[in-house]
Amino acid sequence: MTIETTTSRWAYTTDGETTEFSFDNVIFDAADIQVLLDGEDLDDLNIEYEVSGAGSSDGGTVTIDPALETGKTLVLIRRVESTQEVALPGGGRFPSSTMERMADRAIVLIQQLEEAVQRTLKLSPGDAQVADQILPTQSGRANKALVFDGDGNIRVSQDDYDDQAANAEASATAAANSASAASSSASTASNAAAAAAGYRDTAEQHKNDAEAAAASVSTTTEIDPGAPGTNLPNATAVVGYIGRINGITMITVEEA
Questions:
Q1: Which terminus of the chain has fewer CB atoms gathered within 10 Å of its CB, N or C?
Q2: Is 231 helix (H, G, I), strand (E, B) or coil?
Q3: Measured between alpha carbons, how far is residue 7 from residues 28, 111, 172 in Å?
């Protein structure tokens, strides 16, 4: 037969009503279809599901009855055994149908391999150089993380990934604490700025009061305590006592 379809995998989302799910490529036996529901194998062929269409180049159908509940992911994958079952006796017949079946099986196996490779992690074909991506043995990679080195090649981490996770969590906690401290400092600075503004306003008021008081005073008079009968001809009231400077008593008076 001719095989014109390359698909080896078919995915569906269940709707609670559909019971038949088609595949459009050849299988040789009903057991050549693997059925997965939300990633779990349905193992019981002819009990959990039935397969029809084996041997047809048009494919066939997987039937699941009763219908699966809504929202499930159903995946059909072709899984033909990678064996060669034909033995051609030396000097015997060379039937074309047998040769065609062998060729069909080989193509199916190639398609299955392509489908599997599509689901693998692959290096870009555009890389200038591709080094061997060989990982350590199980003991060497146990509890390690998959990383890329300075050349972009796949390696495993030096540290246990549990330690890495703990360190990352500690760093996150420290960052959160720093952010909280910064917020607190910002709040303190804002409060200090507000207090400074208040002090400035108070100082400004005191300045204004002092200027007003100075404006109401017309003169400052020196009084010599040793001079008899100090005369303040125009003074109507003593406003304030300033102090003694160089033996002179200084008072502030208001003139008439």
A1: C
A2: coil
A3: 15, 7, 46
The pLDDT profile of the chain, 256 residues, written as one tens digit per residue, is 889 999 999 999 999 999 999 999 999 999 999 999 999 999 899 999 999 999 999 999 999 999 999 999 999 999 999 999 888 888 888 889 999 999 999 999 999 999 999 999 888 889 887 778 888 899 988 988 888 888 888 888 888 767 777 777 888 888 888 888 888 888 888 887 887 877 888 878 877 877 776 665 544 444 444 444 455 554 444 445 455 555 555 555 554 4
DSSP-assigned states of every residue in 24-85: -S--SSGGGEEEEETTEE---BTTTBEEE-TT-TT-EEEE-SSPPPTT-EEEEEE-------
Distance CA 222, CA 103 (A): 129
Query: Domain segments of the chain: what residues?
Result: 9-84+96-118, 143-176, 216-255
Beta bridge partners of 253: 219, 238
The string over 205-214, giving b where at least 16 C-beta atoms fall within 10 Å of a residue's C-beta and e elsewhere, is eeeeeeeeee
The strand pairing partners of 148, in sequence order, are 154
Quickly tell me which residue has 């952010």 as its tokens: 179
**How far is residue 75 from each of residues 65, 97, 212, measured CA to CA in Å?**
16, 32, 93
- Picking from 240, 234, 244, 243, the residue whose alpha carbon sits closest to that of residue 217 is 240
